[in-house]
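Notes, Module 5: Reading structure tokens.

Key idea: the token line is not a picture. It is a compressed description, and you learn to read it the same way you learned to read a sequence, by spotting repeated patterns. We will look at two proteins. The first is printed below with its tokens.
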Amino acid sequence: MNIDKIIEEINFDDRGLVPAVVQDVDTKKVLMLAYMNKESIRKTLEEKEIWYYSRSRQKLWKKGETSGNIQRLKGFYYDCDKDSILLLVEQVGVACHTGEFSCFFNEVVSEKKEETDILKELYDLISDRKENPKEGSYTNYLFEKGLDKILKKVGEETSEVIIGAKNKNKEELVYEISDLIYHLLVLMVNENVTIEDINRELIRRR
């Protein structure tokens, strides 16, 4: 990959900037809009982690450099006019400084809900809770108590799933399975097991 040639292709504005739309590679959810200059593009393509240019601070900044919510580069595109960029990223934690997964959470019109990978979003949110504890969070309570507490909850929720199935009550079963999945995701985050690890193992078994 010739980075210099790629940078030469892009049409920057009179401030030397180009807008970058950021999209989660798995959920396809649009996460944020930011700006890049030549140097941030170079560092992004070299390091495979996303760098931007802050217009307010007038300097480069690496996404997640203080929060830990980094973005790993999975795809880099520019449009037909060569004046805007699309980044496909693996989002670690959440993209928005408010704690929302995406910066675009202010809904005005939505005739059809966007399909989303809720398991990955929940996993990312749990990961963010571990890295950035929030007072009063049940998830942080589990992390603070440690592995034995998490395993106890997984066992309890497994029993509840069995009871729900034996009761032949679909609503109860769905509720208890959801509880179990949540606690399994907490266990995964605690033990550094990713959804991609599980996907690979299931694909291997297929």
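Here is the second protein, with the sequence above and the tokens below, as before.
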Amino acid sequence: MIFPIGDQQIEGGYKPLFTYSLIVMNVLVFFYEISLPVDVTELFVFFYGAIPVEILSGQDWFTLFSCMFLHGGWMHLIGNMLFLWVFADNIEAVIGTFNFLLFYILGGLVASVVHIFLILIAKSPW
């Protein structure tokens, strides 16, 4: 399997500040999460993670956003940040910062909805 190790930069010297900000925010949240004691980490994840049964009952809608910054371990964080580093800067340069922000948020929301949908399918009697 070949992993992305580079790309061609968009000409014009565009600085993808939002992409870099997302990487920093994700890393800071992860370092905060791993600095907590184990029992507090569980509470942190339960509070900020999108739990399907709570979303479906109309509770904790904010977790559809906050869960975008949680990672389940070093490899999860590194994999996600690698793809942000390699691809997101070009996407942000082409579609603009505001559209990239919408793209990122909508992508995270779609991921949460798919997660909830798959949980529903797994629990369905058919």
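Summary for the second protein:
- The chain has one domain: 17-123.
- The longest helix spans residues 97-123.
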